[in-house]
C-alpha cells in the first residue's frame, strides 16, 4: 500500500462519466488518489489525463492492470465490457468499482462477484447517489413512522438524448437502452428503501427502430411483499426529471433531485404530513467523493461495505426480469 495511506486508482477509459464526475470525485475525496489512466490510444489517454492532472497514461487496459502501483480500478466502459474487464482486474488483484449496471445479466454478475471473492478484492457497483447521507436521513424518516406505513414508491429518471449520433446507449448488443442506463437507479432505490427484494416485475417499453431497437422509454411496476407497488419510468427520449416519492399512510417524502445531486439546496427533500410540509436541509456534498471514500474505507480499514457485490447481483436479477417483461409484454415473477 502507498505510504500516503491513500488508495491508488487506475481508470480504464476516458468516458464522460469518468472525466466529468467520477475522477473529480476521487480527487476531492479524502482517502483516494488517481495515479493512472488508460485509453485505446495514447493520445486519447494523454489528453484526458492532462486535463485532470493524472501523472501516468497507458494505451492499453492490460498495461494499466499490470502496474503494481495501482490498488484499484474504475471501469466506466460500455456495459458489454464490464464483465470481461472486471474478471481481468480481479485476476490482476485490483479492487474494482464498476459502472452500473454491473453486467448484462445476473449470471454474469454472479461470476464477477465470485471472481472478486476468490481474488480477495472488493467489487462495488457505482451507484453514487446512495452514498449521499441524505438517503440515511430519508430512511430515518421512514423508520421513525412519521409518514406512517409505506404504501408505495414512485421514481423517475428520464432525459432526452435521442438525437445523439453514435451514442453507446443506442447499441443493443452493447447493453444499450434506458432500463440498463437509468432504470437500474429506480430499481436499486426501491430495494434500498424497502430493504427487500421485489417478487414480480411488469414493464412496458418503447423499443425504437431508429435507435437499434433499444428501449428509449420504459414504465414499470415492481411488486413487493405487503402489497407494495413501486412504479417507475426511465427514458432517453423524454423531458428531464429524476424524482422519488415515498407514499405513506400519514404522509409523503419527496426528493425533487433523487439521483443527480447538484450539491446545493436542490438536493434537499420534503416531508409532508397533513397540511404541514417541511424542507429537510441536506449538507452540500460531492456524492462521487462519498462513494470513493466508502469504497476506500472497505479496502484500507476493512470496513464492511454497505453495498457489496451480492447487492449488485440482486439488482441485476430485477433488471433481467424488467427486460424480459418489456420484451415479452407480460408480468415476470422473481
From TrEMBL:
<dbReference type="InterPro" id="IPR036291">
    <property type="entry name" value="NAD(P)-bd_dom_sf"/>
</dbReference>
<dbReference type="InterPro" id="IPR050984">
    <property type="entry name" value="Gfo/Idh/MocA_domain"/>
</dbReference>
<dbReference type="InterPro" id="IPR000683">
    <property type="entry name" value="Gfo/Idh/MocA-like_OxRdtase_N"/>
</dbReference>
<dbReference type="Pfam" id="PF01408">
    <property type="entry name" value="GFO_IDH_MocA"/>
</dbReference>
<dbReference type="Pfam" id="PF22725">
    <property type="entry name" value="GFO_IDH_MocA_C3"/>
</dbReference>
<feature type="domain" description="GFO/IDH/MocA-like oxidoreductase">
    <location>
        <begin position="135"/>
        <end position="254"/>
    </location>
</feature>
<comment type="similarity">
    <text>Belongs to the Gfo/Idh/MocA family.</text>
</comment>
<feature type="domain" description="Gfo/Idh/MocA-like oxidoreductase N-terminal">
    <location>
        <begin position="7"/>
        <end position="124"/>
    </location>
</feature>
<protein>
    <submittedName>
        <fullName>Deoxyfructose oxidoreductase</fullName>
    </submittedName>
</protein>
<dbReference type="InterPro" id="IPR055170">
    <property type="entry name" value="GFO_IDH_MocA-like_dom"/>
</dbReference>
<keyword id="KW-0560">Oxidoreductase</keyword>
